Amino acid sequence: MPNTPSAVGEAASVMSLGVGATEQDGDLIAKLFGSVGKTWKADEKLFDAVTGVSGSGPAYIYLAIEALADGGVAAGLPRELALGLASQTVSLLILHGVLLLNQSCDIITPSCICVYLSQIVTM
């Protein structure tokens, strides 16, 4: 079950072996999926949740980047610069590990919009 970022070698794929699958089958699938990104194993009963996170997730991230860039454009930035800044912000989080919400206090100032957003998310 690879996702759309597989087109650029950054897939987040999850696999589950059926009862008739062999270990060699699993190795082959892991190798195939691994050629286009990262692969995890999970029970098939978790695939609805997997779909919500990694199947639909890229669309939500694209929308968030676009919205962040729109805010930059509304504040006067050229679209190309705003998209570059928004994309790099997401890339930075990926390169340095996922920033967990409860760890964000280290980088958020008290009057920052991030504080407001984190309160909404944790409700």
TrEMBL record:
GO terms for biological process: L-proline biosynthetic process. PANTHER family: PYRROLINE-5-CARBOXYLATE REDUCTASE (PTHR11645), PYRROLINE-5-CARBOXYLATE REDUCTASE 3 (PTHR11645:SF0). The keyword Oxidoreductase applies. Residues 44-90 form the Pyrroline-5-carboxylate reductase dimerisation domain. One of its GO terms (molecular function) is pyrroline-5-carboxylate reductase activity. InterPro entries: 6-PGluconate_DH-like_C_sf, P5CR_dimer. It comes from the Eukaryota. This is Pyrroline-5-carboxylate reductase-like. Keywords: Oxidoreductase. It comes from Prunus avium. The keyword Oxidoreductase applies.
